[in-house]
Automatic annotation (TrEMBL):
Organism, as annotated: Aeromicrobium halocynthiae
Lyase as UniProt keyword: yes
Key words, A-Z: DNA damage, DNA repair, DNA-binding, Glycosidase, Hydrolase, Lyase, Metal-binding, Multifunctional enzyme, Zinc, Zinc-finger
Family: Belongs to the FPG family.
Domain FPG-type: from-to ranges: 238-272
Protein's UniProt name: Fpg/Nei family DNA glycosylase
UniProt catalytic activity: Hydrolysis of DNA containing ring-opened 7-methylguanine residues, releasing 2,6-diamino-4-hydroxy-5-(N-methyl)formamidopyrimidine
PANTHER family the record matches: FORMAMIDOPYRIMIDINE-DNA GLYCOSYLASE (PTHR22993:SF9)
Keyword check for Membrane: no
Formamidopyrimidine-DNA glycosylase catalytic domain location: 2-79
Cofactor(s) for this UniProt protein: Zn(2+)
Database matches in Gene3D superfamilies: 1.10.8.50, MutM-like, N-terminal
Length: 287
């Protein structure tokens, strides 16, 4: 799933390429991808892209005061093209969900495709007058890289596992499954430690890890072409997606907990005192 660093980098990528161009057309290949009807998507045609920003994990293209907002969900991605042909998308075009055609002055030949792998479809597109009209944006908590973020206050009183705390966009926005694994590994915390029970030292480690992991990832992602961002992210992971491999910090074997639709990875030595967490159906989680 694209998270704060990748979505921020995609926003910067689009600012370099799309700002100043005219919105020519938005073609849909999936009925379910467009979540709004007023204003209609056709209202964007002929307007100029004036800015691109990020809200949590949402991309926001300002189109002369209207906003084309995209959430890439778990398996979505954005693919830029400098040479679109004239053939229009058809409904049910495989992983393609939408195409945004832009006109640089010589016709609608550039722009980007939105794609989504797998059978579970979550990619969403909105056309709104204000980004706050998107329910997911309206509900966002503070940005994980907000310099004024007070993580200790957010943690206080939360009887929830710290892994879920980090991923809850209404509490803290921008962090998903991958970077929460990386942050907890850096902070040396069990994914299932209870947020409200963390002592001062653990809170300080977590706060430092949130900032260092995301800042480093953002620096690595910034300036990279959109096509390179996913592979670059994978190569930087130390525990996430590396089940069975060696922890680069202590040399232990990275372990995994699997759920019905996702999984997490962690290092037993670095994070859980050498104990292995087991599946919910067979054992209680380590607190």
């Amino acid at each position: 799933m694209p998270e704060l660093p990748e979505v921020d980098a995609l926003a910067a990528f689009l600012r370099d390429r799309a700002v100043g161009l005219t919105m020519a057309d938005v073609e849909l290949a999936s009925f379910s991808v467009l979540k709004t009807f007023d204003p209609p998507v056709t209202a964007l045609a002929g307007l100029q892209v004036t800015g691109v920003t990020r809200h949590g994990k949402f991309l926001d293209l300002d189109v002369d005061g209207l906003h084309l907002v995209v959430h890439l969900a778990k398996a979505g991605w954005l693919r830029w093209s400098d040479s679109f042909g004239d053939k229009r998308l058809k409904m049910g075009n495989g992983p393609l969900t939408a195409r945004v055609r832009l006109d640089a002055g010589d016709g609608p030949s550039v722009g980007f495709d939105l794609t989504e792998a797998g059978t579970r479809k979550g990619l969403a597109m909105y056309v709104v007058r204000d980004p706050g009209d998107v329910p997911g944006i309206a509900a966002l908590g503070p940005d994980a890289l907000d310099p004024d973020l007070d993580l200790a206050s957010l943690l206080a009183g939360r009887r929830m596992q710290v892994k879920r705390f980090l991923r809850d966009q209404t509490i803290l926005s921008g962090i998903g499954n991958a970077y929460s694994d990386e942050i907890l590994h850096t902070a040396r915390l069990s994914p299932f430690a209870i947020a409200a029970d963390l002592d001062d030292d653990a809170v300080e480690r977590l706060d430092a890890a949130v900032r260092s992991v995301l800042t480093e990832a953002l620096e690595e992602a910034t300036g990279r072409p959109a096509a390179d961002l996913k592979d670059d992210k994978r190569t930087r992971m130390r525990v996430h997606g590396r089940t069975g491999q060696t922890c680069p910090v202590c040399g232990d074997t990275v372990a995994e907990v699997t759920f019905s639709d996702s999984s997490l990875q962690y290092c037993p030595t670095c994070q859980t005192g050498g104990q292995r967490l087991k599946d919910r159906s067979t054992s209680k989680f380590l607190k």
